[in-house]
Amino acid sequence: MVVNPLTELFRDEQLLVVHKPAGLLVHRSPIDRHETEFALQYARSLNGGEHVYPVHRLDRPTSGVLVFARNPEAAQTLGKAMMAGEIHKTYLAMVRGWPPEAGLIDHPLREEAVDRRLKDQVQPVKDARTRFRTLATTEIPVAIERYPTSRYALVELFPETGRKHQLRRHLKHISHPIIGDANHGRGRHNRYFAERFGEGRLMLAATRIVFPHPVLPESVDVQAPLEASFLEVLSVFPGFRYEPARPGLQTGSGSAG
User: What the protein does (predicted)?
Assistant: First the structure.
């Protein structure tokens, strides 16, 4: 019997909200043509075999909350809400170094081609903004680079735009790359944590989403628990307890991840 890797977080007649584990694609992609398992098919199984419609994307190595519409009308309404900046997300990331207490990363990003066959074509540059706040810092007595100790931080991220790989690229831009990021991170730090905890993973999780209900005059507010593999690495922050902040209040909207 195949075990469904998705965990249902919320359901009504219009919506199905789940937790997606790291390593699972949301749907078929030209980047991973040989992959056979997708969150879309597992969500359909949770929906009694009926079709579901992904409202936003969540990158393969990122875990966390993922929203599906259960009918085309709800999907269309939520698509308009996305375009209007009415879907707000909170992420948690573990990064190298100690960032400022809080800030706004306002750094335009060049679009990345979805199909690798188009990678040589010049893509447009678009505005990209991410707000962040630092929740905790730690320093471990391990010389990974040229210093006798190594510093890390937990940051909460609130994307105001939804560019591809925005959070990973923005944190690299401010010299605080996310641990486990093979493309934008620091290899030595990634290898250290992979060896210490027995597996490597991107330390980025979508922890909360707030958006207008497609039919009812109310907001939907769903939190997603952190995966065991994420929590295990957080042991380097003694005593840390996490409660996701509500996005879209002091911050803007977004759906990057």
Answer: Responsible for synthesis of pseudouridine from uracil-65 in transfer RNAs.
Which residue stretches of the chain have pLDDT < 50?
250-255
Residue at 228: amino acid letter: A
Residue 92 is predicted with a pLDDT of: 98
Task: Decide if 92 contacts 240 (C-beta within 8 A).
Answer: no
Token pair 């997300």 is found at 89
State the pLDDT at residue 251. 43
Q: Is the CB of residue 244 less than 8 Å from the CB of residue 90?
A: yes
Catalytic residue among 12, 32, 59, 120: 59
State the Cα–Cα distance between residues 45 and 4, nearest whole angstrom: 8
pTM of the model: 0.91
The DSSP element (H or E) to which 210 belongs, if any, is strand 204-212
Structure tokens at 152: 């890390």
- What percent of the chain stands above pLDDT 70? 89
pLDDT tens for each residue of 187-225: 999 999 999 999 899 999 999 999 999 999 999 999 999
Two tokens, residue 115? 């199909």
Q: Which region, left, alpha or beta, applies to residue 4 given φ > 0 means left and ψ of -120 to 50 means alpha?
A: beta
Euclidean distance between CA atoms 162 and 56, whole angstroms: 10
The answer to whether 106 is a known catalytic residue is no
Q: Which two tokens stand for residue 154?
A: 């937990």
Residue listed under structure tokens 């199909």: 115
Contact 52, 43 (CB under 8 A): yes
CA-closest candidate to residue 151, choices 197, 96, 81 = 96
| Rounded Cα distance, 155 and 226, in Å | 14
Cα three-residue angle 189-178-120, rounded to 5 degrees: 105
